Amino acid sequence: MLTTPRGLLLLLPLLTMVACASTDDAGTPPEDRPAPTTTPPTPSLTSTPSLAPSNPPAPAVTESRARPPLSATELPTMRPPVVKPSPPTDLRQSNLVSGTVTRGGTGPCYGMVAEDGTEYALHGPDAGELRAGSFVTLRLAPLQARIACGPGKPMSIVPL
Protein backbone atom coordinates (compact mmCIF):
# COMPACT_ATOMS: atom_id res chain seq x y z
CA MET A 1 0.00 0.00 0.00
CA LEU A 2 1.28 3.48 -0.91
CA THR A 3 1.78 5.98 1.80
CA THR A 4 0.70 9.57 1.39
CA PRO A 5 4.16 11.11 0.59
CA ARG A 6 4.87 8.45 -2.06
CA GLY A 7 1.45 8.93 -3.67
CA LEU A 8 2.08 12.67 -3.87
CA LEU A 9 5.46 12.11 -5.48
CA LEU A 10 3.83 9.95 -8.15
CA LEU A 11 1.06 12.47 -8.84
CA LEU A 12 3.26 15.59 -8.79
CA PRO A 13 4.58 15.27 -12.41
CA LEU A 14 1.06 14.63 -13.69
CA LEU A 15 -0.32 17.67 -11.89
CA THR A 16 2.47 19.87 -13.29
CA MET A 17 1.75 18.77 -16.83
CA VAL A 18 -1.96 19.50 -16.43
CA ALA A 19 -1.25 22.91 -14.91
CA CYS A 20 1.21 23.80 -17.67
CA ALA A 21 -1.16 22.72 -20.42
CA SER A 22 -4.00 24.82 -19.09
CA THR A 23 -2.05 28.12 -19.17
CA ASP A 24 0.29 29.75 -21.70
CA ASP A 25 3.70 31.36 -21.00
CA ALA A 26 2.02 34.47 -19.64
CA GLY A 27 -0.16 32.39 -17.28
CA THR A 28 -3.40 33.05 -19.18
CA PRO A 29 -6.03 30.29 -19.01
CA PRO A 30 -7.16 28.90 -22.43
CA GLU A 31 -10.64 30.43 -22.31
CA ASP A 32 -9.14 33.96 -21.95
CA ARG A 33 -6.66 33.61 -24.84
CA PRO A 34 -7.43 35.37 -28.14
CA ALA A 35 -8.46 33.15 -31.02
CA PRO A 36 -5.63 32.39 -33.47
CA THR A 37 -5.82 34.20 -36.78
CA THR A 38 -5.83 32.31 -40.06
CA THR A 39 -4.64 35.13 -42.35
CA PRO A 40 -1.15 34.58 -43.75
CA PRO A 41 1.45 37.24 -42.93
CA THR A 42 1.92 39.85 -45.65
CA PRO A 43 5.45 40.26 -46.96
CA SER A 44 7.04 43.61 -46.26
CA LEU A 45 8.58 45.72 -49.00
CA THR A 46 12.05 45.51 -47.50
CA SER A 47 12.21 41.75 -47.31
CA THR A 48 14.15 39.85 -49.92
CA PRO A 49 12.20 37.61 -52.23
CA SER A 50 12.79 33.93 -51.70
CA LEU A 51 13.93 31.72 -54.52
CA ALA A 52 11.73 28.80 -53.44
CA PRO A 53 8.33 28.65 -55.14
CA SER A 54 5.58 29.83 -52.86
CA ASN A 55 2.70 27.50 -52.18
CA PRO A 56 -0.70 29.12 -52.61
CA PRO A 57 -2.94 28.78 -49.59
CA ALA A 58 -5.21 25.76 -49.69
CA PRO A 59 -8.84 26.55 -50.50
CA ALA A 60 -11.17 26.49 -47.54
CA VAL A 61 -12.92 23.16 -47.11
CA THR A 62 -16.64 23.58 -47.52
CA GLU A 63 -19.22 21.66 -45.53
CA SER A 64 -20.20 19.56 -48.56
CA ARG A 65 -16.60 18.44 -49.12
CA ALA A 66 -15.99 17.77 -45.46
CA ARG A 67 -18.51 14.92 -45.32
CA PRO A 68 -18.29 12.01 -47.74
CA PRO A 69 -21.51 10.95 -49.47
CA LEU A 70 -23.61 8.36 -47.65
CA SER A 71 -23.10 5.81 -50.40
CA ALA A 72 -20.57 5.66 -53.17
CA THR A 73 -22.86 3.62 -55.40
CA GLU A 74 -26.15 4.56 -56.97
CA LEU A 75 -29.28 2.81 -55.77
CA PRO A 76 -30.69 0.21 -58.15
CA THR A 77 -33.92 1.06 -59.92
CA MET A 78 -36.66 -1.35 -60.84
CA ARG A 79 -37.10 -2.23 -64.48
CA PRO A 80 -40.55 -2.32 -66.06
CA PRO A 81 -42.12 -5.78 -65.94
CA VAL A 82 -41.50 -8.04 -68.91
CA VAL A 83 -44.93 -9.70 -68.72
CA LYS A 84 -48.15 -7.83 -68.03
CA PRO A 85 -49.47 -8.51 -64.54
CA SER A 86 -52.38 -10.88 -64.36
CA PRO A 87 -55.77 -9.53 -63.31
CA PRO A 88 -56.78 -10.10 -59.69
CA THR A 89 -58.44 -13.41 -59.01
CA ASP A 90 -60.77 -12.09 -56.33
CA LEU A 91 -62.81 -9.76 -58.51
CA ARG A 92 -66.34 -9.23 -57.29
CA GLN A 93 -69.06 -10.07 -59.73
CA SER A 94 -70.70 -6.98 -61.16
CA ASN A 95 -74.22 -8.16 -60.41
CA LEU A 96 -73.65 -8.54 -56.63
CA VAL A 97 -74.97 -5.64 -54.55
CA SER A 98 -74.54 -5.20 -50.78
CA GLY A 99 -76.78 -3.02 -48.69
CA THR A 100 -79.35 -2.68 -45.92
CA VAL A 101 -82.88 -4.02 -46.28
CA THR A 102 -85.39 -1.16 -45.83
CA ARG A 103 -88.63 -3.08 -46.62
CA GLY A 104 -88.52 -6.69 -45.51
CA GLY A 105 -90.88 -9.60 -45.09
CA THR A 106 -91.54 -12.89 -46.80
CA GLY A 107 -91.75 -11.36 -50.25
CA PRO A 108 -92.05 -11.18 -53.10
CA CYS A 109 -91.32 -7.37 -52.88
CA TYR A 110 -88.48 -5.85 -50.87
CA GLY A 111 -86.64 -2.56 -50.55
CA MET A 112 -82.89 -2.07 -50.16
CA VAL A 113 -80.42 0.82 -50.00
CA ALA A 114 -77.01 -0.20 -51.37
CA GLU A 115 -73.65 0.84 -49.90
CA ASP A 116 -73.29 3.51 -52.58
CA GLY A 117 -76.68 5.04 -51.58
CA THR A 118 -78.73 3.67 -54.50
CA GLU A 119 -82.28 2.68 -53.52
CA TYR A 120 -83.63 -0.53 -55.07
CA ALA A 121 -87.18 -1.89 -55.39
CA LEU A 122 -86.58 -5.64 -55.46
CA HIS A 123 -88.79 -8.47 -56.65
CA GLY A 124 -87.89 -12.02 -55.63
CA PRO A 125 -90.57 -14.69 -55.27
CA ASP A 126 -87.94 -17.28 -54.20
CA ALA A 127 -85.86 -15.00 -51.94
CA GLY A 128 -87.43 -16.12 -48.68
CA GLU A 129 -87.66 -13.85 -45.64
CA LEU A 130 -85.52 -10.70 -45.50
CA ARG A 131 -85.66 -8.73 -42.26
CA ALA A 132 -85.72 -4.92 -42.34
CA GLY A 133 -82.41 -3.46 -41.09
CA SER A 134 -80.32 -6.51 -41.97
CA PHE A 135 -77.22 -6.16 -44.17
CA VAL A 136 -77.33 -8.49 -47.18
CA THR A 137 -75.50 -9.19 -50.43
CA LEU A 138 -77.84 -10.11 -53.29
CA ARG A 139 -77.35 -11.02 -56.92
CA LEU A 140 -79.53 -8.68 -58.97
CA ALA A 141 -80.70 -8.69 -62.57
CA PRO A 142 -82.90 -6.30 -64.55
CA LEU A 143 -86.59 -6.83 -63.84
CA GLN A 144 -88.28 -8.69 -66.73
CA ALA A 145 -91.93 -8.30 -65.70
CA ARG A 146 -93.75 -5.04 -65.05
CA ILE A 147 -94.13 -5.44 -61.29
CA ALA A 148 -94.25 -2.39 -59.01
CA CYS A 149 -92.46 -3.09 -55.72
CA GLY A 150 -92.28 0.47 -54.42
CA PRO A 151 -89.84 3.37 -54.75
CA GLY A 152 -86.35 2.77 -56.11
CA LYS A 153 -84.66 1.21 -59.10
CA PRO A 154 -86.67 -1.91 -60.08
CA MET A 155 -84.51 -5.08 -60.04
CA SER A 156 -85.08 -8.80 -59.73
CA ILE A 157 -83.37 -10.99 -57.08
CA VAL A 158 -81.51 -13.92 -58.68
CA PRO A 159 -81.00 -16.96 -56.39
CA LEU A 160 -77.36 -17.55 -55.52
Tell me what you see in this structure.
- By secondary structure, the chain is α+β, with helices and mostly antiparallel strands.
- The chain has two helices and five strands, in the order H-H-E-E-E-E-E.
- It has helices spanning 4-21, 63-66, and strands at 96-103, 109-114, 119-123, 135-142, 153-158.
- It has a five-stranded mixed barrel.
- It is elongated and about 115 Å long.
- It starts with a helix and ends with a strand.
Helix count, DSSP H or I runs of 4 or more residues? 2
Estimate the strand proportion: 15-25%
Helix content: 10-25%
Query: Distance between the terminal alpha carbons, to the nearest Å?
Result: 97 Å
State the order of secondary-structure elements, H for helix, E for strand: HHEEEEE
| Unreliable runs | none
Please tally the β strands and state the result: 5
Radius of gyration: 46 Å
Instruction: Summarize the biggest pleated sheet.
Output: 5 strands, mixed, barrel
Which secondary-structure class do the elements indicate?
A: alpha+beta
In the sheet with the most strands, the strands line up as 1-2-3-5-4
Q: Averaging pLDDT over every residue, what do you get?
A: 76
Quick one: overall form?
Answer: elongated
Oligomer: single chain
